[in-house]
Each structure stands twice: as C-alpha cells, then as structure tokens.
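Box 3.1. Reading complex inputs
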Amino acid sequence: MAADGGFAAAHLRAFIERIERLEEEKRALLGDIKEIYGEAKANGFAPKIMRQVVRLRKMDTSERQEQEALIDVYLKALIDTPPPSALAAE
Amino acid sequence: MAADGGFAAAHLRAFIERIERLEEEKRALLGDIKEIYGEAKANGFAPKIMRQVVRLRKMDTSERQEQEALIDVYLKALIDTPPPSALAAE
Amino acid sequence: MAADGGFAAAHLRAFIERIERLEEEKRALLGDIKEIYGEAKANGFAPKIMRQVVRLRKMDTSERQEQEALIDVYLKALIDTPPPSALAAE
Amino acid sequence: MAADGGFAAAHLRAFIERIERLEEEKRALLGDIKEIYGEAKANGFAPKIMRQVVRLRKMDTSERQEQEALIDVYLKALIDTPPPSALAAE
DNA sequence: TCGCCTGATAGTTGCC
DNA sequence: GGCAACTATCAGGCGA
C-alpha cells in the first residue's frame, strides 16, 4: 500500500472525509434531539420516561411479533419458576 | 509516583492482579453459560428465544415497575400517534 | 397533567413526533456511515483501524500523548507481573 | 413439545434456572471488579488507564504493535487532511 | 464458515 | 466531585 504512489492514501482520505462529514451531521442531529428533550423537560415532561417510551414504540413495531408466540410458550413453561432477582426483593 | 521507591508500583500490581483474577472467573462463567445454551439447543430448545426469555424475566423484576405507571400514561397519550416505523411496514 | 383537557397530551405528542422524526434521520445517517466503512473494507482498508483513526483525530494531540505516556508508566510497573494469559500458553 | 406431558417444560425450567444462577454470579463478579477499580481510584490510580492496561495485557505484544503501526500509517496518510474539528477553532 | 447484526461493556458527558 | 444517562466500541451469536 505504501508503494502505490499515494493512490491508496488518497483513497483513504476520501473515505475518512466522507465519514467525518457524516459524523458532523450526526452530531448536529444528536444535539437537536437533546434540545427537544430539554424543551419537553421545561414543559414538565420527564425526559427519561420519554426516552423509554420512544424505545418501546420502536420495539413494538419490529418483527419481534413473529417470535412472540414462542417466547410466550417458554415464559408460560416457567410460570412457577420465579427469576432469582425476586429473592433480592425479600 | 515514580519517586516512592516502587511502593506505588507494588500497590498497582496488587490491584491489577485481583482484577485479572476476577476477569478469569468471569470468562469461565461465560463459557459455562454458553455451554448450557448449547445443551439446551441439543435438546430441541431455541437458544435465541431462551436468551430473550432470560432477558425479559430480568427486566420484569427490575425497578422498572416503579416507573411503569408513568410510562403507561405517556404511551396512552400517544395512542393515536403511530410511530414512524409503522409507515415502513406499508 | 391528566386533568388538563388533553392539552398536555397534545403537547407530548408534538415532542415525541419531532423526536421520532429526527431519530429516523439519525438511523439513515448511521446506515450511510456503516456503508462507507463497508466500501473501505472492500477496498482493502481496515474499518477497525479507521474507526480508531477517526476517534484519535477528534482528540487533542497533547491529551492523547499524555494518556499514552501514563499507560506506559503503568505497563512498566507491571513488567514482572505476567498477565494470566501467559499461563495458558504453558 | 406441548404434547409431552410437561416433560419438556421441566427440562426447560432446569436449563433456565442454571443459566439464571450463573448470571447472578456474573453480576456479583462484575460488582467486585468495579469495586476494585473504585479502591484503586481512592489510592490515586486512574481507573480508565488501568482498564486500558488490562486490555493491552490481554493482547499479544506483537499483535498490539502491529495495530499501532497500522494506525500510524493511516494517520500519516491523512496528515494534510485536517479533521473537521479544526474548523470549529477558527 | 463467513459476514452481519444485535446485545454487552467501556468511556464520555452532563446533572446534582 | 460523584452519580447516572447516553453514546460508541467490541465481541459473541445467528443466518446465509
């Protein structure tokens, strides 16, 4: 790669530049999102809860439903086997 | 730290050794868990589903319950606002 | 909040919608970045190294060198304490 | 599986219980490790550096140097391509 | 078996 | 200054 007259280096530069450009955009986007949570908080909403809500709404629409039935079967088989964490509640 | 006659170095060594020892144990534990999933698979169970089940059982017993009510309120407020991903399903 | 005639709910909906819209954009951006790393890989570059490079370029040079120096001090303090993995080599 | 008189369910329960037990141990182990880093910090060591040191000691020396060399090559190829952050300094 | 992708872990940052 | 949330990296599991 070093013996190619710098062509590879130029290639690499192009990739890195594109990536860094997109990362800048991403950074801006993250800032915008954060700002909205800030506004919401100023209006009496709980950002933490809102984040969970956004997350849940994402999950619910995924292909998870397809496997839901099987998960349910497994969970039901364990219905009288409480998870260990239940002990911590004492 | 360099001018302490190596006392700090000995101290650091002790900490690192303890950590590396525990990491070894952790590694072994992960191996055991993996093995069990393998056994289960050999018995006709789906490891992937089992992992999700374990995960769900963990979540259900966490402090999430405390915030569950509030999450519910938020979700209900959004009941006629479908998430964007619904559009992708077309 | 529940007793406000739904005004708060409408407000919440507006916030969530804005957030979910931006998250869609973010998702797209992440996909683009990933794609570029994929292209780079197909051209013989190592994505893992590229990521480190992008990260290093974000840091101030002096800060980076300071960290490396400290790492070196720690490593040297452990010079006669072989890591556990050496044992596995037997 | 459902028509087996619950034998499979019992089997599944056994697997899940073993897994959850081991996960508890893992959780405890992680807590212990975290605790040691805390102690070290209280004694004037930098946990962040320690973690990197532990990580480096896990890698083979030659492998590590190989990576560093490659990072250097990449960085040098980008030497006249300033990162975007330089623009922010203006 | 390889590549992809999701889930786990470490680092960073902002809040309290 | 410590704590907790969020982001990014990494490794293991899954599917082709």
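In summary: The interface with chain D takes residues 46, 49-50, 52-53, 56-58, 67, 70-71, 74-75, 78, 83, 85 of chain C (CB under 8 Å).
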